[in-house]
Predict the structure.
Amino acid sequence: MTKQADTVAPPFGLWERAVAARYLRAKRKHGGVALISLISYIGITLAVLVLIVVMSVMNGFRTELLDRILGFNGHAYIDGAPINSPDRPAIVGRLKAIPGVKQVIPVVEGQAMVLGPNQITGAIVRGVSPADLKATTLVSGNIKQGSRAGFGDGDDGGELILIGDRMAAALGVAPGDSVTLISPAGAATAFGTSVTQKDYTIGGIFSVGMSEYDQSFIYMPLAQAQLFFGRAESVDAIEIMLDDPDAINAIKPRLAAEAGPGARVTDWTQKNQSFFEALQVERAAMRLILMFIVAIAAMNIISGLVMLVKNKGRDIGILRTMGAGQGAILRIFFMSGAAVGVAGTVTGLLLGVLFCANIEGIQKAVEWATGANVFNADVYFLTHVPAKIEWREVGIITGWSLFMSFVATLPPAWRASRLDPVEALRYE
């Protein structure tokens, strides 16, 4: 009794795997089955590839935009009466002492018209101190032409400014050239608000890699911006930069307490809330749609496996009469179908990761071959296609593809296991 039990083959044993592998081999008379299996393999591969690439690009978009938006703008903003009181230096000192605060920047910001040699454009002028400009590494570390040397030197901060590279290209100017700034919000006079017009020299041209900023912003010394916009000694806001922008909810009450009564504190989640919520909704919707595509591709396995079961009816009858149980038949056909899904998933995973890792080179190759700009920075804000592989999401995609492949194999495999050997061999 014990000896006979020891001879029973274990589930998914060698002979079951051997039979399943044999059924996967293409033969001339089973060409239809082989073709459907090949189509299923290619479909799953492409579905997994596309899902990984699309989700990585969307993750890259969100990360790149978040890094640039939060590197260029403050993580929190304080305005109100206290910031323009004589106590402002003390307020700035208290804010800097809060744990997690990296930078405190008094800012003057206003709109102006910029006149170049042959062009005119609108701009947002941001007045900051030389030390604060240096600490804003997204700008100071990305000066492509000229330099920030001399920024803030001279009476009232001097007349040296920095502009974005796309604005410089639109105006046709370079470092050392002069531009004229016109502000409609000048000093108040007895006859109303006067228009301020003044010439400035371009000291440097920066590029932060986001077209909205590179074509719209001008950096000016704080004292000069106060003079140009008629702010006297006041500022428009105090920007707060944090070590971790996601910690804003924990630090925000402390910021309000140190700024004092009458100060208003807003943060980056409020300023960009609709933008990032739209990205999140789009990301979730795209993931759901593409997961359905993976499921549809996996359903092709059913067609191939149904044909395989029909063609192998005689083999099933013989195996059953030789002692193979229903479980063994189910596992054989399950492995035959699942192998297609596993192979397609693994291939799609490898191709997707390789595609994302080399996406900038692929973009350049496509642009070189077509002669067209496939990623217009004016439309997409960024200068290149970003891709960030999140391995947790890749794992979810891989698991979903395998799950759907296994589910798709079960109905035809179960049907094969339920086939009556007498009926299968009756007409043989």
